[in-house]
Design goal:
It is built from one helix and nine strands, in the order H-E-E-E-E-E-E-E-E-E. With about 180 residues, the chain is mainly beta. The strands form two sheets. Strands 1, 2, 3, 6, 7, 8 and 9 form a seven-stranded antiparallel sheet that branches.
């Protein structure tokens, strides 16, 4: 019996000694934290000149002028393109009760004089005799972008037109749908 007690005692001592010399548990040497950021977008805006004066013209002649430095600034930080269109009414002289019909107006957008950002910036085709039409657009945009251009206006004065000052408002609007 003594031998079995010694064997049991020796086995218990070995287990105790093994526990005494066991390696300590390894502590974590790194950790991870998830981080996020929200990229915010701004707005789509247009800046236009306050006035444009067409040149003087006699009946049967053509008055011309430039709507200079129209600028679209797109800070939406996205991929949607944009387009600019115009709306205009007939040139009228309220004192005379006369107007020059829209059929006599040609609007010819020019190429961009300045651009920034990624995009394909393009002028629309000229419009003749219309009260509205496309002027300029951007497709394939990626992030913030801008473009600046001029639009030439030519107004043919009717041969029977009366002398006087005629005026209208040339309204330009920017929307999110890109000119194709």
């Amino acid at each position: 019996m003594r031998n079995s007690f010694r064997v049991a005692l020796a086995a218990a001592g070995t287990i105790v000694l093994a526990g005494a010399f066991a390696s300590p548990a390894l502590a974590a040497t790194d950790g991870s934290t998830d981080a996020t950021v929200t990229v915010t977008g701004g707005e789509l805006s247009i800046t236009v000149p306050a006035t444009v004066a067409l040149s003087d013209a006699a009946p049967g002649g053509t008055a011309s002028g430039t709507v200079a430095n129209t600028t679209v600034t797109d800070t939406r930080a996205g991929t949607d393109g944009w387009n600019v269109s115009y709306t205009v009414l007939a040139f009228s002289n309220t004192d005379l009760g006369e107007s020059i019909p829209l059929a006599n107006l040609t609007a010819t957008p020019g190429s961009a004089s300045a651009t920034s950002g990624v995009g394909i910036f393009a002028a629309a085709a000229p419009t003749i005799g219309q009260g509205s039409g496309a002027i300029f657009g951007a497709t394939g945009v990626h992030g913030n972008n801008s473009a600046t251009w001029d639009t030439s206006l030519a107004l043919t004065i009717p041969a029977d037109g009366l002398a006087g000052v005629y005026s209208t408002t040339f309204i330009q609007s920017v929307t999110t749908d890109a000119v194709g």
